[in-house]
């Protein structure tokens, strides 16, 4: 396997700005528990091992029930998610893998029933943010768990 570059070291100013954007997303109108589900689902869909690992640990630290993190991949069949969480997960999926003809009106309307205008906009930015991180970490094959101490993820007590 080819060794990949460290994108943080190669583009420190861009990393810093994107990290600042991530900090702003954390202050948005979408509750932490929903953001945890969204980041985990997008990371699963994108095959980002580093981010799946990170977001499972973050969710545990934030108090998420372990079974719900396992059910994110099967959220449509699971009974563990609220209508609002289901809408967020559906919005995550459609914006992570945008269909050829865009976002269907029916889905937009269903999601907008659960989220105010600002919340829907904030949710969209949260999905944009995690998809950006996923793309960088997939491209450069960032190893899961390598930033646990730096991000305080060792507090999850998962190994």
Automatic annotation (TrEMBL):
It comes from the Bacteria. One of its GO terms (molecular function) is peroxiredoxin activity. Residues 12-93 form the Carboxymuconolactone decarboxylase-like domain. Pfam families: CMD. NCBIfam families: ahpD_dom. This is Alkylhydroperoxidase.
